Backbone:
């Protein structure tokens, strides 16, 4: 398969999948079949893309056949391919979960096409090689997010959606301003060409670049939910049903992190002496505030939502330390977190399916009724908290080692403390939901009767699938560590990227 | 004109933010629209204003002759306006739905009603 096609397929497959779904709008089951097919083909195409990227390091194509700085560039390196494979895996699992885990009304009124279009947005953000297109794909992704968050229109969802829409609209405005400033300073929007321009020390506009970088830091900081800009996240992520919130919570903030890492390694390198301490400060506060917020909550989903914030802090920590090992650690952590976070949300969904509540006070005794589910939760939770030998441990080890090598002792200390508090709040969920006896007051007639085995199996399948991935990453970490190191190397040495993008080999 | 435009951009940004911070839902819509206008105008102005230049290459030349206008900011702006419309339309429909569900135009009351549940 030509690599041009491989780069375009991850965008086209979700789009055509969504269109097919719309064609079968009246028949919900056909819609589900089409969406399932699209998910599987998308996963296949991203795996092929990964394979090609591993062989050639960076692949690029010019859509519309205009030469590089003028046309629309699509480019993929190891980092973007990794993100896409992870997104495709959790896309497939969330889709499988939604077959049983989502109510028929939402499924009938556009859940499948919206999810697919959201995935197209994610592909676009990861593959684009152009600053303005990055903004456009982010908007595609966000508008699907808005629609998914408010799909069904329950009261909580509507309230959460208003906050999400307003704040993300402001962030998009800031991003657009940043794009405008960068264009007026350097006269180009192509990431590869910009990367070469900002590395010319004699360029007259170089000192002004930090102005643009602050716009991007704030804009993507809102979308990635870093420290002072995260308040929308716990307010809106816990409102929609699990089949929606697990995908959004698992992936979208990480896509924001992806763009931050991409832009701050590719473009905004002229002012690192100022930016890195700032990032370190933000990373520390993000970790700390997120986990403290989580410790104060008494709702299963809200605890998990706050944990997203604290884990974003770890990813930012890797960027703030800015050594090859640290960035590799960040990338490893992002991939690990996409799987684990989605899995924990799905598990909370299975619990809530049976007990009709997310409140820790009303839950209890799940271990006696669903021991398998409890073990699945325990493994995922320990992995999130970073107990050795599970996957979170390797990411944190890489980050901590990089921090110690760089002499950033405070940040490492904070991250280790936060790990402890994470473990504490995971233990809290374990104690309250799975271990303690069922509260007497709610003992009667709230539990659903055990559902039939086939339905249950369909709910468990995606969880087991994701847990297999998590255990694989944890117990056999070497391949993913190698991949993250390669990805970090590709981010810090941009010659291959710029050469491939700017070489202008025409599409035949 | 060149001094007036930045002032207008700044004013629009400020007014947009001020309206978004209101608790009244209709004013939030107004704020979103004004903020979108402000970013669009900002993009337009920062792309550089050149008077009397055209963005088209003359027939006898192969490259643009001075003075010429840069067409890229306008193209970006066009895309940005369309995206902005999409999001504004979505938020207007969302807010209408909120009004129909909660029978209230006040953001504080939504919060209270949700916490009461």
Residues:
């Amino acid at each position: 398969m030509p690599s041009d096609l491989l780069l375009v397929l991850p965008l086209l497959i979700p789009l055509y999948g969504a269109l097919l779904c719309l064609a079968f709008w009246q028949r919900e089951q056909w819609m589900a079949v089409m969406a399932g097919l699209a998910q599987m083909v998308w996963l296949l195409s991203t795996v092929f893309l990964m394979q090609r990227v591993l062989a050639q390091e960076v692949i690029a194509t010019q859509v519309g056949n205009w030469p590089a700085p003028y046309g629309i560039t699509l480019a993929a390196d190891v980092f973007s391919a990794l993100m896409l494979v992870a997104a495709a895996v959790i896309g497939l699992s969330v889709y499988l979960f939604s077959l049983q885990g989502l109510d028929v009304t939402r499924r009938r009124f556009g859940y499948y096409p919206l999810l697919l279009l959201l995935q197209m947005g994610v592909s676009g953000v990861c593959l684009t090689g152009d600053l303005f297109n990055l903004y456009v794909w982010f908007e595609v992704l966000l508008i699907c997010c808005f629609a998914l968050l408010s799909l069904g229109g329950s009261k909580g969802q509507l309230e959460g959606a208003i906050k999400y829409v307003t704040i993300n609209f402001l962030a998009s405005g800031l991003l657009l301003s940043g794009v405008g400033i960068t264009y007026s300073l350097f006269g180009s929007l192509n990431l590869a060409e910009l990367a070469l321009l900002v590395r010319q020390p004699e360029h007259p506009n170089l000192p002004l670049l930090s102005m643009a970088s602050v716009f991007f830091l704030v804009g993507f900081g809102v979308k990635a939910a870093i420290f002072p800009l995260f308040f929308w996240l716990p307010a809106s992520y816990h409102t929609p049903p699990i089949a929606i919130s697990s995908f959004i919570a698992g992936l979208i903030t990480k896509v924001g992190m992806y763009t931050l890492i991409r832009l701050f390694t590719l473009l905004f390198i002229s002012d690192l002496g100022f930016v890195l301490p700032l990032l370190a400060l933000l990373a520390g506060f993000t970790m700390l505030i997120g986990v403290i917020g989580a410790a104060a909550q008494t709702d299963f989903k809200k605890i998990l939502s706050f944990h997203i914030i604290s884990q974003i802090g770890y990813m930012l920590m890797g960027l703030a330390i800015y050594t090859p090992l640290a960035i590799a650690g960040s990338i490893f952590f992002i991939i690990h977190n996409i799987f684990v976070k989605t899995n924990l949300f799905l598990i909370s969904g299975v619990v809530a399916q049976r007990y009709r509540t997310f409140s820790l006070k009303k839950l209890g005794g799940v271990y006696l009724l669903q021991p398998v589910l409890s073990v699945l939760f325990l493994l995922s939770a320990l992995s999130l908290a970073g107990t050795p030998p599970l996957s979170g441990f390797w990411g944190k080890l890489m980050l901590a080692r990089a921090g110690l090598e760089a002499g950033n002792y405070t940040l490492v200390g904070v991250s280790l403390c936060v790990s402890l508090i994470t473990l504490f709040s995971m233990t809290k969920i374990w104690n309250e939901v799975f271990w303690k006896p069922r509260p007497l007051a709610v003992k009667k007639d709230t539990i659903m009767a055990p559902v039939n085995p086939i339905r249950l199996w369909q709910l468990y399948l995606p969880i087991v699938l994701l847990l297999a991935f998590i255990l694989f990453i944890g117990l056999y970490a070497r391949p993913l560590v190698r991949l993250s190191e390669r990805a970090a190397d590709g981010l810090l040495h941009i010659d291959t990227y710029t050469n491939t993008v700017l070489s202008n080999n025409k599409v035949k | 004109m060149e001094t007036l435009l930045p002032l207008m951009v700044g004013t629009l940004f400020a007014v947009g933010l001020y309206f978004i911070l209101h608790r009244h839902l209709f004013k939030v819509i107004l704020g979103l629209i004004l903020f979108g206008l402000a970013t669009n105008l900002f993009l337009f102005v920062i792309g550089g204003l050149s008077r009397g230049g055209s963005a088209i290459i003359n027939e006898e030349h192969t490259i643009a002759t001075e003075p010429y206008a840069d067409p890229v900011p306008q193209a970006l702006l066009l895309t940005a306006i369309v995206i902005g419309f999409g999001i504004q339309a979505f938020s207007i429909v969302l807010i209408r739905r909120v009004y129909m569900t909660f029978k209230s135009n006040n953001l504080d009351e939504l919060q209270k009603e949700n916490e009461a549940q």
